[in-house]
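Box 3.1. Reading complex inputs
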Amino acid sequence: MQQIIPLIPALPLLGFLLNGLAGKKMGKNVVGALATGVVAASFLLTIGLFVMLLGNPEPLQNNLFTWLQVGSLQVEFGFLVDRLSVWMMLIITGVGTLIHLYSIGYMHEDEGFHKFFAYLNLFIFAMLLLVMGNNFLMMFFGWEGVGLCSYLLIGFWYTKRDYADAARKAFIMNRIGDLGLLLGIFLIFQQFGSIAYADVFGSAGLVDPTSIGLITLLLFVGAMGKSAQIPLYTWLPDAMAGPTPVSALIHAATMVTAGVYLVVRASALYDLAPDVLTVIAWTGLATSIFAALIGLGQNDIKKVLAYSTVSQLGLMFVAAGVGAYGSAMFHLTTHAFFKALLFLGAGSVIHAMSGEQDIRRMGGLRKTLGTTHWTFLFGTLAIIGIFPFAGFFSKDELLAQVFEHSPLMWALTLFSAALTVVYMVRMYTLTFWGNFRGSKHQAEHLHDSPSVMTIPLMVLAVLSLTSGFLNLPAFTHAQWFSGYLTPLLGEAVHTMSVSTEIALLGIAFMVAVGLGLWVWKHYQKPEQVPAEDEAISGFAKLTGNKFYVDELYNAVFIRPIEWFSRLLYTIVDAKVIDGLVNGMATLVSQLGFGLRQIQSGKIGTYLFLMVAGLVLLLLFNVIW
Amino acid sequence: MPIEYYLILSSVLFSIGVLGVMIRRNAIVVLMCIELMLNAINLLLVAFSTYLGDGHGQVFVFFIMVVAAAEATIGLSILVLIYRNTKGVDIHQLDHLKH
């Protein structure tokens, strides 16, 4: 059984190669079927491994070959499939398959169809390596791989300047985080003498706490970049420029959760660094609230979802920061389902609206887009935490864990969850209720998506409804998911009384329902449609412009760097370096010009020079 | 007669030869001046040979005379050819080898 492990990432890689090299000749149907097929096959293989691990929690190892051997560093190209990584693999390949299927419909008219699927397959391959590796270098390899693929996919329509810029922004912002991750890995090697998970986590207690603190902090910097936490979050909303299935894949199921995965994977280290955990929790909380506030003022359907993702990732980090790694993973899972659903649903709406993304020009779509509306409603209910949808359970567990840690933090987290209700219901209502506000042309072409697109929506809707039951609240003692992760993360401790827990549940539920209904009613009125950008003021303007963070970064980092670069260009490059190089050339050519005068071919000159030389030699001899 | 006289005469002859080579433009005169320089050296060799009572120097003189004769022959033949081609033996005009 161990032998099939390498097949799981190899299949998408094969799909990438086939589609990338020969996709143009194969025809769209073959390309789409092949790309979806390889990921589906990986999914089936993963299910096999998952069933095995259900029976026996012993991790599966598979070392393919020695990848690197330099000095005392030996790195295996090896896979580690334990209950954590197999869970991630299920999400990646499972949701990945649905997104591939959906893309067949969504990208059907696109010229770069085969290229798109090749990139998607490569993305899945890189993401699988990231979670399956048994050492930090493998993770880093996958980490950079998904970075590259996100660059390729965000900038897929690269002929549009803005899209290419967004791709670059994502790439560069991620590099900042990656520097932290890389330094962390170097430090791990310096302290542990190895970067294999088994060695590092096994001997974590033997290393001095300062180093552990520094390592975990640096790893978290990497996670900040990938999982879009303050201050490295601004790339993610811009990354919406890419095709919508990409947004779903990158923002919901895979890449952005890599940071959470990293923290959970390295939990053995993080447990030894409580201060760093505090930093993570507060960073996550600040990100969550901040992004949710920005989400309130956005009118682009995908931007709202993007800030929502940033916000939800923040919640996962809050959970990880209070040591509730299982809750973080649980929320990651349910979020993967409902956020993928919401993105794909948004894609379906955009598809029907002929590319329109502004919710101010939508409205009333529930009549024409039946399936999309229902599935989108499921996703919305799931993310705002309405019983019995998935988000209710995962968010409740998260909140309960945070409450045990600190009631203040719980209140703030609840505030963030309440903001989620506001911006999500606002978007849902403006999109699907009220009267249609688009153009006449759009109204005539409104149609539900083809079944290749609606089937993934329906599957994800069912998952959004049911996946919460993986882990019921603690007092029910029906916590399958916690039990599943116990061999890895240890037994979760619940000190909370049942009444407290039910009270917390009730508060969260009341907030979600009450606020949700109020926002729903509020935004159905025609006069509540958000004003045009020029007409807004005050807080709405502030949130609509994302608190001017991009402008701040522009002023603090980009402008000074540009100014300094220009300075370096005019002074160092143009004057010093060019001067040096050109001066060298001028010197040589001048020397040649001078020497050429001597080579005149005139015998008289030669003789004169000869005699003069002799006379000089003689004089020199005499004087000496 | 003291050896210094020979040295002075030889130096004067040699210098006249050098000066001639340098300032004259007629190739034949230049060749003659070279002969003059060679003979200044011959004179010197003979003088030292006698002064030291050693025959080696005189042998060298014969060699130099032979070589000088041969050289003059070749030099003059070349000059004749040059004259035929250019109608002149001004060395300042003879810079074709440069190209």
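In summary: The first strand of chain A starts at residue 60 and ends at 70.
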